[in-house]
Specification:
- By secondary structure, this protein is of the alpha/beta class.
- The chain is built from 15 helices and 13 strands.
- The strands form three sheets. Strands 10-9-8-11-12-13 form a six-stranded parallel beta sheet, with helices on both faces. It has a four-stranded parallel beta sheet with strand order 3-2-1-4.
- Strand 2, helix 2 (52-57) and strand 3 (62-64) form a beta-alpha-beta unit.
């Protein structure tokens, strides 16, 4: 690790700073790192700046490797040049493109202090971990199923650390009684992409509307399938009860109006939106995929069902809407669980421990040569 008087330059390599769970977690981590030990920087392959104002306000230097909103050859050439000319002490790539090219170029530049990350359903396949898993000193994943996938393909367990996402429970607070919803709002805050399977959610809401005619479905998000999702919503038999909204840097006003938060994902890591919903005292209806079963305790903090099953998801949503006392009890349990198990402070401390170990070159606790 660099000299004690000089904090280590930790470069988080991201595809962009668009509104998204990974970007949000990177930002929360970067803002909270101990600046006497670590000096965070964000490098972006594409020029999307949704979270840039908050990062800049927090004193995090931002480097845009391309003037374009998508990743291209220019982005990758700029990344290779930046790694050569502005060599970081530690490189932490996040999401698929940064994990692929960040590790490949780091290898060509002889940079060994690299931490690969896997954070979402399908990430291991998208990032070609079967072939690239050895191009980093360590892996950080945010859900146990991702760790199991990596070990199954030969990555030593000692080189993987599972660190669940954190949530700022002082920022995401249950609303006061006078702000509690007066409508039956079913809220989905999720990127419009294949993994989130909005089609199943919209179909499930047809079951909900048949039993709860006052219910409304609010879809908040952005992404590559934005047009398709909005088309599905306008063609639904219950289209008058479905609203769509763009992503927002502060989702709390949406949570404050919600009765139930829902995710219909077919692939997941450990979704931030469910942590935020739990912190705000809301019950969850979701699919049992990825790390969601680690978050949601059935019949205690919410209800789970298999993916791609609109009837089962609709039944769960309708049953929660039908029983206010049950919803409130689950919401209180969810808030307690978020405070107890998913604090932002614990998330940051665990990252700092891994960063320090990789920077020092020390073996992981279970590796040969590690000290007890």
């Amino acid at each position: 690790m660099p000299h004690a008087t000089k904090p280590a330059r930790v470069v988080f390599l991201l595809q962009d700073l668009a509104f998204g769970g990974t970007q949000r977690q990177a930002l929360e981590l970067g803002l909270r790192l101990d600046r006497t030990r670590f000096s965070p920087e964000f490098w972006m392959l594409a020029d999307v700046r949704d979270f840039a104002p908050r990062a800049e306000a927090g004193g995090i230097p931002l480097t845009w490797l391309s003037p374009y909103p998508t990743v291209g050859l220019g982005s990758l050439l700029a990344l290779r040049r930046a790694l050569k000319e502005h060599r970081p002490d530690l490189l932490v790539p996040l999401t698929a493109m940064p994990n692929i090219w960040g590790r490949v170029f780091a290898k060509t530049q002889g940079l060994s202090a690299v931490i690969g990350t896997c954070r979402g359903g399908g990430a291991i396949k998208r990032q070609h971990e079967r072939f690239l898993k050895g191009l980093c000193a360590h892996h950080i994943v945010n859900a146990a199923p991702l760790a199991r996938e990596l070990t199954a393909m030969g990555r030593p367990a000692a080189k993987i650390t599972c660190i669940p996402n954190g949530v700022d429970t002082g920022h995401f607070l249950p609303p006061p009684d006078d702000l509690r919803p007066v409508r039956e709002v079913v809220l989905c805050l999720a990127r419009f992409c294949e993994d989130k399977d909005h089609e199943t959610l919209i179909r499930s809401f047809e079951y909900v509307a048949a039993k709860r005619p006052r219910a409304e479905l609010w879809l908040v998000g952005d992404g590559p399938l934005r047009t398709r999702v909005r088309t599905l919503a306008t063609r639904s038999p219950v289209r008058g009860l479905i609203r769509t909204y763009p992503s927002t840097p502060d989702p709390r006003p949406f949570f404050q109006q919600a009765s139930v938060v829902v995710l219909s994902s077919v692939r997941e890591g450990l979704p931030n939106v469910l942590l935020e919903a739990m912190a705000m005292g809301l019950p969850v209806a979701a699919t049992a995929v990825g790390g969601i079963p680690d978050l949601v305790v059935p019949e205690t903090t919410g209800l789970l069902c298999p993916p791609r099953n609109p009837e089962a998801l609709g039944e769960n949503i309708a049953s929660l809407l039908a029983d206010e006392d049950r919803r409130l009890a689950m919401g209180k349990n969810a808030r307690t669980r978020a405070e107890t198990l998913y604090s932002m402070e614990a998330m940051v401390l665990r990252h700092e421990a891994v960063f320090a170990r990789v920077l020092s070159g020390a073996p992981a606790p279970d590796e040969p040569g590690a000290q007890p």
